[in-house]
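### Sample
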Amino acid sequence: MPDLSDAELRDRLTAALGIVRWVDAVAAHAPYASVEQLQRIGRDEATPLSAAELDEAVSHHPRIGEKAQQTGTSATLSAGEQGGLGDADARIDADIAAGNAAYEERFGRVFLIRAAGRSRAEVLAELTRRLESSPQAESDEAAEQLRQIMELRLATLFADGKGIS
């Protein structure tokens, strides 16, 4: 199987975690022996994230419960991740929308959570819990959620084996 070009590798990495510094650092380690090694290096390079990098990465994510405004691989991945939240529930969806607004007012950025493997009710419970966090604790939690999303996306984006060896 042919390897990816540098541009294709960087496009996939950007879809996993949209931080230019991170993409450069992870691409510099290529090739990888496995997706697991790629995930490990990805996590190492994403720990810690600066406040500016957190904002940079979050700007690539739609609000939970909403469709992405952008197009491309990251938007497609977001739609799939949020699609797993289960059937729409008008009450929970309205509570999430209100929570999103309160979160953005309190923390100045979009609420971010790894949606994969969670229900709408679980997302709402986490949103409600995290609204009570201190700004620093919430920044730390948002960064951890980004790292979890990145690891899942790397597994999806590199499942074909291209670009890792």
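The mean pLDDT is 88. This sample (2-oxo-4-hydroxy-4-carboxy-5-ureidoimidazoline decarboxylase) is used throughout the tutorial notebook.
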